[in-house]
DNA sequence: TTGACATATACCCATATGGGTATATGTTTT
DNA sequence: AAAACATATACCCATATGGGTATATGTCAA
């Protein structure tokens, strides 16, 4: 038995992992190839413990893999969990395209008015 | 002058708005057409104030528009801000496809082994 | 105008979060 | 073995977050 949680963890899936800008930055760097932690510290200009913490979230969600290399820990991108995000958001592509073409229509109208009705 | 914030707000962009499952549900419903708040309350089986709060976040991020209709407030999807999410995640498509084809290779190998050698 | 209805807001609460500093852990070099 | 290096973890802290209940606000119906 346990009382209802006041708030559920929000760092347990790809959507949340990727909601944090720092973590997107990390993934963006790793997209260019695997990197030890210190590289990320330098590139992100963020305290080392914070980088490690973000990496932990990414690891728990499966967005990165780690490999030991002497005294370094080399992190590597695993983009697979991002497919879920992509699949969800892809469903809205039509919706924003409609919006854009609706805007185009308005602009066309304005242009037509400019040239006399 | 102000002291450094201990933590920045995380509900101020599309990435974060969409990280919350309830809000994705709301958008999924609105994708089927505009809806008054109470419809969402019924469909999501969530307390009305919570729905209103999630709608507020979505509104602030520009993912929904509102329209007054008598004593109802009708919410409507605006998918445009999702394009940013799509654009970012799209850049990783190649990465997860590589992973999948790497997996395919492994499976092929196992299959080959099964049939002798 | 009084009451029902629809929605937003003001609170309270427990917990998650991200940043920070100090330190533990493990590895390589000297 | 000791020192330097690389990384993870344990804390502390302020604040954001999501859920909940009560209530304010505004609109329509009787």
From TrEMBL, chains A, B:
Transmembrane segments: none annotated. InterPro entries: ArsR-like_HTH (IPR011991), HTH_ArsR_DNA-bd_dom (IPR001845), HTH_MetalResp_TranReg (IPR051081), WH-like_DNA-bd_sf (IPR036388), WH_DNA-bd_sf (IPR036390). This is DNA-binding transcriptional ArsR family regulator. The keyword Transcription applies. Keywords: DNA-binding, Transcription, Transcription regulation. Residues 3-97 form the HTH arsR-type domain. PANTHER family: TRANSCRIPTIONAL REGULATOR, ARSR FAMILY, TRANSCRIPTIONAL REPRESSOR SDPR. SUPFAM superfamilies: Winged helix' DNA-binding domain. The keyword Transcription applies. GO terms for molecular function: DNA binding; DNA-binding transcription factor activity. It comes from Umezawaea tangerina.
């Amino acid at each position: 038995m346990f009382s209802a949680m006041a708030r559920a963890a929000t760092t347990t899936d790809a959507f949340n992992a990727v909601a944090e800008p720092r973590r997107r930055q990390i993934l963006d760097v790793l997209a260019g190839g695997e990197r030890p932690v210190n590289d990320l510290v330098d590139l992100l200009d963020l305290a080392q413990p914070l980088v490690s913490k973000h990496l932990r979230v990414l690891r728990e969600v499966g967005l990165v893999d780690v490999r030991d290399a002497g005294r370094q820990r080399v992190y590597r991108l695993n983009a697979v969990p991002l497919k879920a995000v992509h699949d969800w958001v892809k469903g809205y592509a039509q919706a924003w395209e409609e919006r854009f073409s609706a805007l185009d229509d308005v602009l066309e109208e304005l242009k037509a008015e400019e040239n006399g009705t």
